[in-house]
Structure formats: structure tokens, C-alpha cells
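Reopening this one. Same input as before:
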Amino acid sequence: MVQSQSTGDVMKRAFLAAWPHTVPIFAGFWFLGAAYGVYMNALGFSFLYPTLMALIIFGGSLEFVAAAMLLSPFAPVQALIMAFIIQSRHLFYGIAMLDRFKGMGLKKPYLIFGMCDETFSINYTADIPDGVDRGWFYFLVTLLNQFYWVSGAMIGGLAGSLLAFDTSGIEFVMTAMFVVILMEQWKKERTHVTGWIGFAISLVCLYIFGSDSFVVPTIIGILAALTVLRRPIERRLDRGEDSVPREERGK
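Same output, byte for byte:
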């Protein structure tokens, strides 16, 4: 009983620390998840499809694409390649979280499965208060974010049949969300060197390979560039370059 109460206290402290970080995600995920549910309903699927896909796949942009795949001819290899291309950015997330996930025990498989863009952003950058268990903080951030997405998709699927409006272009909400995430990360970065590297390589690969095939070469190029330039970038950060806000420079 004592051990159970102690675990409950640990989880409560972790929840109180994690939940405020997820509130902005809650607002975004409910809207985006509902839009996804409405989109699935417009394609003719019942609310069970977006709910289960949000629960099992839990990859927002991939789920929008998967919805169209369900109406296409059966092509498992093509679906596998497409899923890898769309979600391949998670390779970077996994590498970045290797040290943080050490010693997570039974929580680790779920932390790996549930690591979406927003969850990675919180868990990687959050300052966890003293006395809060790191593993439970990561776990609850992940769980809360998935709950927001799944519940939003279910609500959208249920409400979709009651709404009568043109849903053309509703899948663009995912693109809009990624733009917001980019802007938030840009403001938090001490240096924008890595961002400019990624932007430059993306443009080069887009020009060379075209819009349908540039994602994988871009990822490989960024990974190679950051591997080669890792030490110079780290030395730049250690010297404190680009760490002072622009408005304070020159004072």
C-alpha cells in the first residue's frame, strides 16, 4: 500500500509538471484531430476508422495520406515506402532522445511509439522541475498528447455526419501545424545554423529530384551534413555565438 501510494505521488507530481506543457498541443490537436475525423467522414468512413487509426498509427500527416490509400488499389509495398518517407524525420528524433530514454524500463516502448513532433519538442526542450520523475514526465506528456489527438479524431468522425460544408483542402491543417512548430523551434534555438543547413539542402534536393522524390535525399543530405559539421556547430555554441537575442546585440 505504501509503495502504491508513493508511486501515485510520483505520478501526480509528474502529471502536474507535464500537463501545462501540453495545453497548447491540446488546443491544436483537438482542432486538427477533429479536422481529420471530418475528412475521413467525408471520404465515407465511420468514426471508428479515424479513432483506431489515430490510436494505432498516431502519425498525423501519415493518417491523412493513409485515408486516401484506403480508397486506392491494394499496394502494400507502395504504402510501406510512403509511410517510411513521411515519417522518416522520426529518425532524427530517436537519435536525439537516445540518452534521455536510457533507464526508462517498461515505459520505453511506449515512449518510442508515441513520439510525435509535438511530444519530441516538449520532451527534448522542457526544463523538468526538481523532484519530478523524468520517466513519468516523458510518459505523461506522450500519453496526454496522444489522448488529445485520438479524442479529437473521434469527435470529428462523430460530428462529421452532422456538418454540411465543403471539406476541400481540410488536410492542409497538418501543413499549417508544421509551419507553427518550425516557427516555435526557430525562436527557441540558440543558433540557426542547423536550420539554414536544412533549408539549403531541402532547396537543392527539391531542384534536383523534384517535389515527388526530394524527401529521402533531403533527409540523407541533412544527416550527412550535420554529422560532418557537428563539432564546428558545438564549438560555436560553446563560444556562445548566436545565443544573444538580436535586440540585445550592440548594447
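So the earlier flakiness isn't reproducible anymore. For the record, The two ends are 59 Å apart (CA to CA).
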